Amino acid sequence: MSYAKAHNEDIRRLLSGYSENVVLAFQQAVYLMLDATDSLKDKNKILESLEYLKKYEYIRNEINYADIITPNDGSHQWYSHLEWDYDYIKNPAEGWNMQKCEEQQKKYQLRKEILVSTVKCLFNNLDEYKVNSIAAMLYYTHITGDIRDNKKLNDLPSFLVLKREIEKHLLILFDTEANNLCHYVDVFLSNAVTILNNTNSEWEFDRRQLYMTIYMEIFTSEIVKLLKNLKTKK
């Protein structure tokens, strides 16, 4: 998977031109949304991220460590990387009972709240639909980084799901201004389905990493132009 440094750099590039405070807040919120597990080595980082977001009143004080962590059992992506609007009650894992589905759905919604609330505080001039879509774009930026850097693509959206979701949120945010970028996403990720194979060979991994690196560089350079008109708090 992508390491924290790579994810943070992806967010920094996406938010080029925004203040360091904005970038740092989103780096913390995206981390909590997607990668907060019960690993002992990550506990301090999770607590520090929660403290930072509470300090600036981006999230509720009532949100605690135990409320959001998920198992660090080698499949942490299942708990947060499937899709922005994923419903664990309607789509449970094999062998899960209803209680476990409800507990996971509650955690997932709380993690989404952290990211959405941070966006709402910093992009306070936007309506709830655009706030949700900025949060979703940050979410899918992280996931795209994992698709680029993961050896295996277990528990990650398909290229077609990624394409559909990114195009949907681009149009909510930017309407027809996003048409050209949506076309690029459509062509690039549709082609990815046919030219990239989900195998474990080093050659295929290197090929996918190069392809997705090029995609992310072009996508980021274009979305930065669109984002420049969305004002944030300092």
Summarize the SSE layout with pairings.
Layout lengths: L3 H11 L5 H16 L7 H13 L9 H4 L29 H25 L5 H22 L9 H16 L4 H17 L6 H26 L7
Helix pairs in contact: 1-2, 1-6, 2-3, 2-5, 5-6, 6-7, 6-9, 7-8, 8-9
Commentary on this structure:
The protein is mostly helical. It has one domain (4-227). Helix content is 64%, strand content 0%. It has nine helices and no strands. The protein has helices at residues 4-14, 20-35, 43-55, 65-68, 98-122, 128-149, 159-174, 179-195, 202-227. α1 packs across α2 and α1 crosses α6 (128-149). It is globular, with a radius of gyration of 17 Å. The two termini are 32 Å apart. The model has no long low-confidence stretch (mean pLDDT 92).
Helical amount: 55-70%
Order of helices and strands: HHHHHHHHH
**Span from first to last CA?**
32 Å
The main pleated sheet reads as:
none
Strand-residue fraction? under 5%
* Total of domains: 1
Please identify the structural class as seen in this structure.
mainly alpha
Give short descriptive properties of this protein.
single chain; 234 residues; 64% helix; globular
Task: Briefly say what this structure is.
The chain has 234 residues and is mainly α. Helix content is 64%, strand content 0%. The chain has one domain.
